[in-house]
UniProtKB/TrEMBL annotation:
<dbReference type="Pfam" id="PF10609">
    <property type="entry name" value="ParA"/>
</dbReference>
<dbReference type="InterPro" id="IPR050678">
    <property type="entry name" value="DNA_Partitioning_ATPase"/>
</dbReference>
<dbReference type="InterPro" id="IPR027417">
    <property type="entry name" value="P-loop_NTPase"/>
</dbReference>
<protein>
    <submittedName>
        <fullName>MinD/ParA family protein</fullName>
    </submittedName>
</protein>
<dbReference type="InterPro" id="IPR033756">
    <property type="entry name" value="YlxH/NBP35"/>
</dbReference>
<keyword id="KW-0067">ATP-binding</keyword>
<keyword id="KW-0547">Nucleotide-binding</keyword>
Length: 252
């Protein structure tokens, strides 16, 4: 049965899109057919990680939401872009980066029910094993929809007081929406912090499992969103951590 995985954070700057790209790619590397939807319509960016240039994105999620196209026409096969050479497939449905398109979405909005219909259509048409949803930070009706239909909700937080408070709110909302399975991922952890102690503290605070702890890495910064980290540095500690999280998704 295909699985829908939403990646969310209460605040921006947590590394959510980077996390989504790496986790989705890691799952695809295991021979799965994977789709990624960039629902961060006001501030899209995950296409950069998949080496998809704006001029190549003639059709986007926006076009589907406006009723111009079936959502499958906005799906781009980025398998080769990230170096997938085995049996796995990776598709990206990007949001438009055109200022006029972003302004139109912000001004007029869209029918959020279309998202749910679009997700179902993608899974069926592309024969996906996994669909990853890169959400917009914060809480909104769009976020509630993604959370409600997900088999997994992964909440990204940094070891930061603002993130802790925002994550507490999000966890409560997710429980009210009866999300099927929730996992936490701690990102951008300073080297002076003890990962195991931090993991234990977060699990005790939220009574939810921490799927992975990811250190603050200069290697990630140096890559500067030009490609997927786990493909370029497969033996790196962070890539190993992504494989651990991916295994929990696959087995869950």
């Amino acid at each position: 049965m295909p699985k829908v995985v939403s990646i969310h954070s209460y605040r921006g700057g947590t590394g959510k899109s980077n996390f989504t790209a790496n986790l989705a790619t890691t799952v695809a590397l295991q021979g799965n057919r994977v789709g990624v939807v960039d629902t961060d319509v006001p501030s899209p960016g995950i296409h950069n990680l998949f080496c998809l240039e704006p001029e190549q994105m003639s059709k986007t999620l926006n076009n589907y939401l406006w009723g111009d196209i079936p959502i499958e026409e906005a799906a781009y096969d980025v398998s080769g872009n990230v170096g997938l050479t085995q049996s796995g497939k990776l598709y990206l449905i990007p949001s438009s980066v055109k200022p006029d398109d972003i302004a139109r979405i912000l001004k007029d909005g869209y029918d959020v029910r279309l998202m749910n219909d679009g997700f179902r259509s993608l899974v069926k048409t592309l024969q996906l094993d996994y669909l990853f949803i890169d959400t917009h930070p914060g809480l909104s009706k769009e976020t509630f929809l993604s959370i409600a239909i997900s088999h997994f909700l992964i909440l990204i937080l940094r070891p930061d007081k603002q993130d802790y408070q925002g994550t507490a709110v999000t966890v409560d909302v997710a429980r009210q929406l009866k999300v099927r399975k929730m996992l936490l991922a701690i990102n951008k952890v300073h080297s002076k912090l003890n990962p195991e102690a931090l993991k234990q503290k977060v699990e005790e605070t939220y009574q939810e499992k921490v799927a992975g702890v990811f250190g603050l890495s200069e290697d990630v910064v140096q890559l500067a969103s030009e490609g997927v980290f786990c493909v370029k540095y497969p033996e790196h500690q962070l890539s190993q951590e992504f494989r651990k999280v991916a295994q929990q998704i696959v087995e869950g």
